[in-house]
Amino acid sequence: DAKTTQPPSMDCAEGRAANLPCNHSTISGNEYVYWYRQIHSQGPQYIIHGLKNNETNEMASLIITEDRKSSTLILPHATLRDTAVYYCIGVISNFGNEKLTFGTGTRLTIIP
Amino acid sequence: EPEVTQTPSHQVTQMGQEVILRCVPISNHLYFYWYRQILGQKVEFLVSFYNNEISEKSEIFDDQFSVERPDGSNFTLKIRSTKLEDSAMYFCASSRTDRVDRTGELFFGEGSRLTVL
User: What is the pLDDT of residues A38-48, one digit of tens each?
Assistant: First the structure.
């Protein structure tokens, strides 16, 4: 699985868009980019994932560069409840052996 | 919305005691996992389980650990003789994996905090 690199921390004003970058320059062609978050000490929560195309769901948008070496998670209107550690993880689909390798992530703080 | 439930939420035990952590995965899920997170550290993979057997395990998952799906709903993690360094939050997760493009979508429980004294 590709090693991912994320900034250790970021702040964002409440109501603004939070843009969280991730570098994954060694990602392989069949490796998906998954984003999870962990609010305080709760269980990690799936946010979104993508392979090549940009993706959007009710929680966030994911922008993947054309060369797939980096991506950005966008929370369009951040709220205080979005304060969490965000993890960018490369996943090669293996039907059950999805051993997610969590890094240290980005600690996002939403400021009132 | 269906969710993964874990019990107990917090367990305190003496070193050397056996501990069983219980999980009820989402009902139509096929793959089950245990992860752990020592306070202040990364979330670490322990083991994955499918079709009543271990699919993969990490080097953390040594002989003192075992997993079982004793009935159609529960998934348990047993730690045979707890050590101080087993103190951590243990997360159970499950997934469906019937679609190759969603196989990394794991649903995690809220965790069981284990404190070994």
Answer: 999 899 999 99
Cα B41 to its chain centre, rounded Å, is 17
The CA distance from B2 to A57, in Å, is 19
| pLDDT tens per residue, range B25-42 | 998 888 999 999 999 999
Cβ-nearest to A96 among B48, B58, B110: B48
The yes-or-no verdict on residue B61 having pLDDT over 70 is yes
C-alpha distances (whole Å) from B16 to each of B83, B115, B116 are: 6, 12, 9
Question: Order of strands across the sheet with A106-111?
Answer: A9-13, A106-111, A84-92, A31-38, A45-50
Are B43 and A41 inside 8 Å of each other by CB? no
Does A74 lie at the interface with B, CB-CB under 8 angstroms?
no
> What letter does residue A5 receive in the DSSP assignment?
B
Joined tokens for residue B37: 């997170």
Identity of the residue in B4, B44, B48 whose CB atom sits nearest the CB atom of A97: B48
Per-residue model confidence (pLDDT) at position A63: 97
**Nearest by Cα to A36 from A47, A25, A28:** A47
pLDDT for A20? 98
